[in-house]
Amino acid sequence: MTGKVLFPSGPALALLFGYREENLRQLEVSLGVRVIAHGNEVNVKGPKAAVGTALRVLDRLRSATAPVTPETIRALAGGRGHVAPVARPGSPADLSIRTPRQIIQPRGEHQAEYVRAIRACDVVFGVGPAGTGKTYLAVGCALQAYAAQTADRIILVRPVVEAGERLGFLPGDVQEKVNPYMRPLYDALSDMLEPVTLRRLLQQETIEIAPLAYMRGRTLNKAFIILDEAQNTTTEQMKMFLTRLGVGSRVVVTGDVTQIDLPKDLPSGLVHAVDLLEKVEGLSIVRFTPADVVRHELVQRILTAYEGDGGARYAGTGGHAKPRPRG
Length: 327
What we know:
This protein has 327 residues and is an alpha/beta fold.
């Protein structure tokens, strides 16, 4: 017997089918059927009873919004479990970040507040130590927004500033010269997208990774824009960047104000913006602390030691601001 199920077209298919279609492969293993996906059409072949069960499982997946994993498929195929219905925006059940290669769950109060802020506000600042997930969560939210078709493209931006070193002349064209500075953004994307998908989205400029200087003069509509390492922007650069915001776009600015690599006579645009924009409507500032570090536990101890030694340049990294929704 054969049967088929049509899914809504769009990039969200990759999230439903799983990394390398692992959810479809699990359905095959669980029910002894053959599952073949062609675009948004899924065909099932096998014994009549098994095909009927597979079609019912696939039909339930069409409305799934909560994370779908091979374990979910196995439970559904066995007549157990369920797929969550549409969650209310901002509810605890809605905080999972689904990307093609993994499902990311906020860890801790500040990460949860950060994800809520990104979903509620047009401009969000994530300020705090390295290792607290500021960039990683923002990239995940950007991919999810693209999959949900609320953003047509993703633009990842960094200032090109050397971290206390003088690298001198770098060979290659402009892109090759700036790529080393953009490596952390590529690393996050590689965790969440298959290599083939990542290359395609970069070639199509659906995902654009660019130095901050390339933003001047642009107006960015229906885009998800992330400015990483924002502590190394000048005041003028930060103003220029924030005013690129176009219709239907969202901006996330991340930075660690204890690791500023600007010349000592240049004030940080991130420090200035956080002080200046604290009460601006539609904007949220979420502050992380060393307690939020999710890297090796020793990183948290190192950061605490540096803070105790008076190394922090910016007072007020604790606590977090409640997001102020748009409008």
